DNA sequence: TCCGAAGCTGAGCGCCCGCTTAGAGCGCCC
DNA sequence: GGGCGCTCTAAGCGGGCGCTCAGCTTCGGA
């Protein structure tokens, strides 16, 4: 399960739950390499090199290259799901909750777009059981978003003829941010999040949107 | 597999412009394989095998495996751009043109999702100059959609605070259909196209939408 | 002081990759 | 009929891949 990632000093560090230190460095190197070139185009020599180690060192901490991808996918999905759920379960009406969910989910996919790319686009490189585990996590994303939209419809705040289809569209819109987002582009993750939250409220026909 | 688009007076099948026949069969096999496993995970032996030929036969028609990907990407993008432009330049107001553009673009990405996947997600496997060529084609997609939205804003039909951002979002939404669309799922390409056209009209705040 | 476990490296194994080459089959034009 | 060019195959080359293993270093505990 996803737990707090704090050192004794209290600082939050991205892959804090991965120990020992060498294993974490290898995993961070793998995320970089997979995001840049793709899983199949990345060699174990490249990963080890980025982590400042010999190729053989990788196999002390991970059984195979695929296990690295699996760990990255699981942790990444859990983080994204955590971000989404926190927003979905927050205080406020459906419109506020949906806006906050989209805002934070998009912010994560933009800010952590290297991880997000690996997590979203390398699923097929996993074996059947690892893939099944990840797919289950994805369905929880879907359920979280659908839940908010259903609440909004029930409350009469939203006008949505096709709840399942709209849910897919909203999630798809957010996830695809990981594909096109560019750190050197004109927008910050916060700005994209705000823009997308507004667009999604329009998609669900929210009766009263927060001021732009 | 859908191969034969019937000809009434000379209209061609999906990859009709690729000759000779053996080159076309190899290309179709490559599209299947790339879409299924990804470019880097696909071997030239696999492609040739699917086309019913020996591995060496591939190199009579294509200089390298990368050239195959390049040809697929170029033709695929040109087809998609053609679909989009035809709709963008059709008769009617901005709302009708935008709806038709989204409807047909989405229909293409759903119906031809194998090609679309290769075209959209394997761009990084291309060399610098081939990639530059494809990126140029993408910018034309962007310009086509932005043009319609600008028309709608100028005519007072749309309410769009951020035209560039909304353009990216609309295209992103359509393109990502290629990732999640499933032939065995509950929706046909036509249905997804209709749903998405409605959602996009909401996103741009179209004053009067066609009947749902 | 010594010992065993843990972490890591240099060397390298066996496999399969993209791609090449020599040559066979076959239709076409003179 | 015969040479030619196009298409295709069987065989295989060089190389880089994922991964392994023997052995070195480091270090905490008895």
Automatic annotation (TrEMBL), chains A, B:
Q: Is the DNA-binding keyword given for this protein?
A: yes
* UniProt keyword Acetylation present: no
An MF annotation (GO) of this entry: DNA-binding transcription factor activity
What residue ranges does this record give for the DNA-binding region? Answer: 43-62
Q: Pfam family example for this protein?
A: TetR_C_24
- Keyword set, alphabetical order: DNA-binding
Q: Where is the HTH tetR-type domain?
A: 20-80
Q: Where are the transmembrane segments?
A: none
PANTHER family xref list: HTH-TYPE TRANSCRIPTIONAL REGULATOR RUTR, HTH-TYPE TRANSCRIPTIONAL REPRESSOR BDCR
Q: What is this protein called?
A: TetR/AcrR family transcriptional regulator
């Amino acid at each position: 399960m996803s737990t707090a990632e704090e050192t004794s000093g209290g600082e939050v560090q991205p892959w804090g739950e991965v120990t020992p230190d060498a294993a974490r460095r290898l995993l961070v190197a793998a995320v970089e390499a997979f995001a840049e070139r793709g899983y199949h185009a990345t060699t174990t020599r490249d990963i080890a090199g980025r982590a400042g180690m010999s190729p053989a060192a990788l196999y002390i901490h991970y059984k195979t290259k695929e296990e690295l991808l699996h760990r990255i996918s699981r942790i990444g999905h859990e983080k994204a799901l955590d971000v989404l759920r926190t927003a979905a379960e927050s205080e406020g009406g459906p419109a506020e909750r949906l806006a906050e969910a989209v805002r934070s989910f998009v912010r994560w996919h933009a800010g952590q777009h290297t991880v997000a790319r690996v997590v979203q686009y390398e699923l097929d490189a996993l074996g059947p059981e690892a893939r099944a585990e990840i797919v289950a996590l994805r369905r929880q994303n879907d359920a979280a978003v659908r839940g908010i939209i259903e609440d909004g419809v029930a409350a009469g705040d939203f006008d949505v003829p096709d709840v399942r289809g709209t849910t897919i569209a909203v999630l798809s819109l957010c996830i695809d941010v990981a594909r096109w987002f560019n750190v050197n582009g004109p927008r910050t993750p916060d700005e994209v999040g705000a823009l997308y939250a507004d667009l999604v409220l329009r998609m669900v026909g929210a009766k009263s949107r927060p001021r732009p």
